[in-house]
Amino acid sequence: MSGYHLGKPTLQMREVATLEGRIRILEDFVRKGIRNPLVRAVALEVVSQCPARNDWCEIGQIFYFIKRNVRYTQDIFGIDTYQHPARTLQWRGGDCFSEGTLLLTDDFRFVPVEFAYNGMRIWGKDAWTTVEEVWAKGTLPVTAVRFNNGSWVRLTDDHKVYVLRCPEHERANLQATANKFTACGQAIRPCFCGVAGRVELRVHVKDLRLGDVVVTPSRLAFGRAAQDPDLAPRMASMGRYAPEQRALSIDLDEGAAGALLRGIMADSGANNGGRRTFTSTSRELALQVRILHKMFGIDCGASYIEGHGGLGSHPVWRLVPRIPKSKRKDGKALKLLRVDAIEPDVARVPCYDLTTSDHYVYLPEADVTVSNCDDHSAAICALLSAVGFQPGFRVISVDGKVWEHIYALVGMPKGVQHPTWYVLDTTVPSSFPNWQPKRIAAARDFKPIKLI
Asked: What predicted TM-score, i.e. pTM, was given to this entire model?
């Protein structure tokens, strides 16, 4: 496989407004894939041990080859990025979280990804989502990304992050790249337009740009419990220097969460701009305070300071609430969450992967939403086509409102005009040929793919 050279990766932007338009993009990649020598060679090698005319054997071999070697693509969502099947086979995916990455559970605890389990409820994008599978991926190189809220996250290069880009400036940047202006020292410049008019894209970590606006939840849900009215005064008298400090629970309803937050922030000071600044030597308490603010739709800038020059030798975590525009006296817009620095290959660490029911994962340490899967649908269809099968796509909706998930279809037997169609969904490790999710409110099939 390494003998085939695919050249330098390129990015093209195509604006599509319909589900059919997005499917046409994937179909185009399948057609390109079956003409690529790498795809053809891989397909023949994968099915080489099957007896002649044994269709089920060939389908099984391709299905499990993809499951073992390539991570699956997230469902079609808005305007997305897609990858040539040969590039997918060359890179093999690897979208993983580094060990120690924290997830927010529905009882408002912070759990490292390596301790996640099937059925756990965590925050996704705008709602709680269910962890469907978790597995270790071994030791992998990770890239560190810093955001302008002061937070860092470490992910593998092929992990997907949701960004908001302006189509007008995106065209200009892509044209500049095509004209090789960047080679003359004119770097791609970030867009500083407002949120209105931007589109949501799902890009690899390795394709992030400085200044990219990153998707973050507008707010988090409140919890379920109510606390007694004396909680706030007690929290205000906790002190500020104990590294082991934490709130007993932040699984609180709106009234109790507000009381707790007022009690904690009563112990905070004011910065030069007059805003309250929370400082603590407790990492967990700082995360709890960020989540409490997020329940009320307030983002926080964060910093980690070792040589702070104050009393004690412990490092401190500092949070500065970002006041919404509607409550700001200066009328300035809310500061968008942007990529501030990218440091590739900072370490090789144990990594873990997981899938969730809505394909989103919220990372509370960075206040950012990421994807939990990678490109693959076009790749499996290209491999099937290369050995004579008729492939197709099925797009499903779980809630009946949004098309959320896409996977492959294959027609059997080969060479007939009206084959029987079977499902090939490799989203989860426990799936098998003709398995598909149980909860499907609506489905649309696009079959067969026109290969000429």
From this structure: 0.64
